[in-house]
């Protein structure tokens, strides 16, 4: 956990214009800056950054927050990752906790591993481009595959020389320690001494989300069948294969823009698709797909398209990966290439336009794809057909969302001409088995009774109540420390006009009537105001802008930013005088508090009316009716104060 003092220092040091300006072209507009939304396609700028408030607001997508929120939304960092990115940019040391000697040693080792991998990456890349051996063997191989220099540089491809000590000798000469080089897996030892692990191979650097090299893949160009075609770096403190996707660093922005991720098997598939102009593609690097890898994709999109080689044996083996993707709540489509082709070979054989069209025209949902593969082997055998259907229902059971399961169950029913209820029974059986006998069953949205009008009325009342909660929080955030003139009784019992902080007025009204908020996030904000007031402090929106709770952060930015406003220069130039909320605060806050109390009372009446329907005891019925009458009188008082006519 990063200490609060460090977090505060990061926020104080971070220039929001400088940081966001690295990703968005910003132009000054009054006291703020504007640019095109980085989250949606638009022609008219609706993205605003306020250096004074240190916030951004994108009016097209609705996103907003502080500099950390922006990095989390745009770069899909976690909260700690965003803080560390800023700390690195502004050269702030981050110590997450009081470190033990073991922690210090581990972090030092990680730093050294990053350094040796960075050195190795530069070494291999330079060997490829600047040496005769690299050019004639490595570079010619990549060019034969159709990769241009732009693509080679984009993926920092390299070459490790035939000399078995070329890298190790260069690294030692540069000052790197032999034990660490060996620990990184870049150098191995045997009875003959040390040798370079990747010697005589073309190199594919593996990067983490921030672009740091954490490992390598190496392909031999020899035809010797005894030699493994690919070598990968061993796992280390910085390289965990189950949590890494090759090409994700290069692909993440394209994945967000296209809202889809192509998933392929190998390094060359990723690079060839990039060469063909398709950038939203990643690879599991030849290993079985893991939950950790799927969750990485989920940070950028909920849509995955798997590209399969034309090899039925390999396809059946990968069905487990489809179920894992479904389990994480992602949408899955599949493209199968012709027999003997893979994404790499097919993209080289066809033009970019033909390749793109093939991907679009041959996409299939996982049910259709899976059933076609499995049914091709049944040969009209009813038992095998039944097993195929069970297999597909098993996949549907992995989907966490009930409505999505309903849709796929219906699709399966139509495809196999089978009663949906039979499939539903099988699905419920699987779900019970998966949850170790829990009684909760899946129930589809089939023939559900219609919701009666009174329920609609209750829902509407709740929405109105939450809307009013939102308005009260907005007033406290924007004007909490400003005084409103109120008649306050002094020690002599006389009414004297005094300026009363708006936030204090709202809180005292809430406390006196024992009121609270339905929305949990609004209640959290209110509680912070309440705690501060007990210490004679009045908070403002800036207190919440840097809140680590991203829900609260987003709410505060949303409530305190307005897309359209008149600048002070414009008002002075044209002598414009507008009736604004800011100069009518007393009326605005009293009205908002009264409407809030009205909505709370309406909600209580609605709840009492619901109790009437289930109560059978006559005495209790009379008590409930009495409560409703009293609440109705209170509601009418609030309505009269507001000039509202109640018609029911």
What would you note in describing this structure?
- This protein has 648 residues and is of the alpha+beta class.
- It folds into 4 domains: 4-89, DNA Primase, Chain A; 101-239, DNA primase DNAg catalytic core, N-terminal domain (Alpha-Beta Complex), CATH 3.90.980; 248-434, 3-Layer(aba) Sandwich (Dna Topoisomerase Vi A Subunit, Chain: A, domain 2), CATH 3.40.1360; 454-601, no CATH class.
- Helices cover 53% and strands 13% of the residues.
- It contains 28 helices and 18 strands.
- Strands 1-2-3-4-5 form a 5-stranded antiparallel β-sheet. A 5-stranded mixed β-sheet has the order 13-12-14-15-16, sandwiched between helices.
- Helix 11 links the parallel strand 12 and strand 13 (281-283).
- Helix 3 packs across helix 4 (79-89).
């Amino acid at each position: 956990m990063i200490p609060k003092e460090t977090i505060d220092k990061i926020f104080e040091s971070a220039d929001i214009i400088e940081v966001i300006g690295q990703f968005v072209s910003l132009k000054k507009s009054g006291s703020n800056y504007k640019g095109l939304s980085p989250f949606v396609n638009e022609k008219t700028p609706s993205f605003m950054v306020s250096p004074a408030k240190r916030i951004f607001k994108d009016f097209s997508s609705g996103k907003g927050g502080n500099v950390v929120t922006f990095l989390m939304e745009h770069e899909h960092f976690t909260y700690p990752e965003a803080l560390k990115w800023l700390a690195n940019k502004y050269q702030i040391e981050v110590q997450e906790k009081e470190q033990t000697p073991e922690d210090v040693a581990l972090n030092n080792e990680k730093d050294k591993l990053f350094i040796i991998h960075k050195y190795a990456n530069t070494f291999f890349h330079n060997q490829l481009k600047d040496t005769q051996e690299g050019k004639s063997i490595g570079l010619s191989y990549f060019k034969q595959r159709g990769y241009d220099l732009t693509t080679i540089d984009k993926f920092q491809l390299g070459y490790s020389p035939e000399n078995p000590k070329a890298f190790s000798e260069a690294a030692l000469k540069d000052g790197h320690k032999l034990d660490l080089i060996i620990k990184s897996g870049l150098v191995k030892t045997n009875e003959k001494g040390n040798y370079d692990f990747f010697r005589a191979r073309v190199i594919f650097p593996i990067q983490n989300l921030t672009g740091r090299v954490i490992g390598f893949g190496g392909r031999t160009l020899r035809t010797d069948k005894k030699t493994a075609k690919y070598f990968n770096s061993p796992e280390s403190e910085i390289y965990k294969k189950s949590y890494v996707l090759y090409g994700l660093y290069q692909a993440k922005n394209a994945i967000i823009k296209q809202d889809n991720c192509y998933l392929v098997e190998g390094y060359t598939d990723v690079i060839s698709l990039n060469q063909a102009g398709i950038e939203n593609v990643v690879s599991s690097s030849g290993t079985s797909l893991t939950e950790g890898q799927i969750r990485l994709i989920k940070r950028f999109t909920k849509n995955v398209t798997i590209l399969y080689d034309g090899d039925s044996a390999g396809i059946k083996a990968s069905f487990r990966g489809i179920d894992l993707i479904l389990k994480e709540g992602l949408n899955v489509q599949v493209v199968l290439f012709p027999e003997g082709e893979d994404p790499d070979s097919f993209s080289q054989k066809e033009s970019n336009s033909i390749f793109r069209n093939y991907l679009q025209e041959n996409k299939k949902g996982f049910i259709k794809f899976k059933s076609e593969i499995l049914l091709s082997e049944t040969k009209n055998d009813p038992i095998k057909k039944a097993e195929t259907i069970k297999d597909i229902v098993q996949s549907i059971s992995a989907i966490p969302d009930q409505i999505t399961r309903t849709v796929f169950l219906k699709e399966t029913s139509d495809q196999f001409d089978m009663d949906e209820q039979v499939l539903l029974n099988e699905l419920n059986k699987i779900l019970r088995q998966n949850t170790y006998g829990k009684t909760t069953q899946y129930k589809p949205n089939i023939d559900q009774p219609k919701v009666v009008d009174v329920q609609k009325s209750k829902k509407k009342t709740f929405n109105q109540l939450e809307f009013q909660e939102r308005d009260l929080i907005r007033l406290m955030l924007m004007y909490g420390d400003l005084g409103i003139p109120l008649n306050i009784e002094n020690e002599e019992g006389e009414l004297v006009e005094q300026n009363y902080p708006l936030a204090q007025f709202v809180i005292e009204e809430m406390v006196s009537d024992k009121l609270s908020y339905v929305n949990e996030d609004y209640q959290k904000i209110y509680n912070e105001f309440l705690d501060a007031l007990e210490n004679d402090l009045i908070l403002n929106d800036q207190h919440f802008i840097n809140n680590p709770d991203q829900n609260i952060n987003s709410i505060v930015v949303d409530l305190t930013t307005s897309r359209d406003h008149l600048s002070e220069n414009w008002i002075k130039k044209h002598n414009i005088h507008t009736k604004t909320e800011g100069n009518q605060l007393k009326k605005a806050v009293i009205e908002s508090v009264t409407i809030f109390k009205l909505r709370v009372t309406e909600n209580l009446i609605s709840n009492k009316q619901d109790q009437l329907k289930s109560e059978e005891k006559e005495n209790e019925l009379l008590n409930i009716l009495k409560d409703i009458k009293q609440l109705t009188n209170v509601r009418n008082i609030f309505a009269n104060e507001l000039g509202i006519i109640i018609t029911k």
